[in-house]
Amino acid sequence: MRFIHTRASVGLMQSSLLLAAALLSACGGAEKPPAAPPVAVTALKVVPADVPVTTVFVAQTQSSQAVNIQARVSGFLEKRVYTEGAAVKAGQILFEMDKRPFQAQVDGAEAALQRNKAALEVARANLARTKPLVELNALSQRDLDDARGQFEKSAAAVAQSQAQLETAQLNLSYATITSPVDGVSSFSVVADGTYLDAQNAQLTTVSVLSPMWINFSLSENDMERIRNEEKAGQLKPPEDDKFIVEIELGDGSLFPQKGKIDFADPSYNPETGTFLIRAVVDNPDGVLRPNQYVRTRLVGATRPNAILVPQRAVQQSAQGHFVWIVNASEQAEMRPVVVGSWHEDSWFINEGLASGDHVVVDGALRLGPGTPVTVKDAGADTGSVSTATASN
């Protein structure tokens, strides 16, 4: 009996221990886990502001006046006078042709002119003697008509000889070939001693360096985008579309002279879908040379009430771009946005944000909807940027 009682006591004790363990387990499951600490993020306050924008294009220089130097008469090229590639002045001699044939033509034309002038004086004197004799009926009217006709014929011969002399003198002057403009010379196409004619007249080229043309193209898509932004009030061009053109050289430095747009082709190029825009800029020191590649900056447009957000704050999902903002409850909230063009290290935000929104700049990777956050000010407002660059 005692043994049976002992075993019953042990069984009762084990049951009590199991019940206590179950109760403890149930109580532990009902406890809530400790709340996650707030995520520390850096945020900035959206402040819209008018932001000047600069549009950049790849461009190519072109001489505003590239003159082909050609022989205007046929003959032998005697010598090249200028130094190839050197700067030349208007009126400077570039080539000289053999002048002897042209001088002979001048001499012959002068002799013919003197002969015809002498004949004209004889005809004039004959006419003067004939007129009073006809009035006295000593000569007939026919004699007067013949004298007048001979005088007029001699006068015409003199005029013709004068024209031939002037032509011969022009041809002689053309044997000395000069530059019509100030500019930089190219290489000589022909060698000394070459016979020049209509098929072999090109000698060299002189290109004017100042002013210089800057050619660049605007695509049809970019033009449509600019029009839509102007309609939506997102872009304001300068007054009378008077853009300032800045030139960026190959080493990244800015050309000291500013240019302006002086021509826009009204037609699109059917092959490229672009139309040509030309700017003109003074080039007094000849730094810019024809056919040089540069970058142009069109300055003068403004984005009114623009919102700028650092690029690192903008993320992208399958649904599009979005940012994290801190709401009034100091919790993270996902906000879809429509981005525009770049500005240095920032995006223009066309839709999705408003003045006063706090955009998370750093720490966004640890956020989810409703995540509590502690905010550290980014230390810069979105509207504090002075220049925006829209890469083309």
CATH class category label of the largest domain: Mainly Beta
Oligomer designation: single chain
Order of H and E elements: HEEEEEEHHEEEEEHEEEEEEEEEEEEE
Low-confidence stretches: 1-15, 17-27, 380-392
Derived structural class:
alpha+beta
Taken from the alpha-carbon principal axes, the silhouette is: elongated
Terminal-residue CA separation: 102 Å
Q: What is the second-level CATH architecture of the largest domain?
A: Beta Barrel
Number of domain units = 4
Query: What is the number of E strands?
Result: 24
- Radius of gyration (CA) equals 46 Å
Helix content: 25-40%
- Residue share in β-strands: 35-45%
| Biggest sheet statistics | 6 strands, antiparallel, barrel
Question: What's a quick, concise take on this entry?
Answer:
The chain has four domains: about 40-55 and about 305-390, conserved putative lor/sdh protein from methanococcus maripaludis s2 fold (Beta Barrel), CATH 2.40.420.20; about 55-65 and about 210-220 and about 235-300, Elongation Factor Tu (Ef-tu), domain 3 (Beta Barrel); about 65-100 and about 175-205, OB fold (Dihydrolipoamide Acetyltransferase, E2P), CATH 2.40.50; about 100-175, Helix hairpin bin (Helix Hairpins, Orthogonal Bundle).
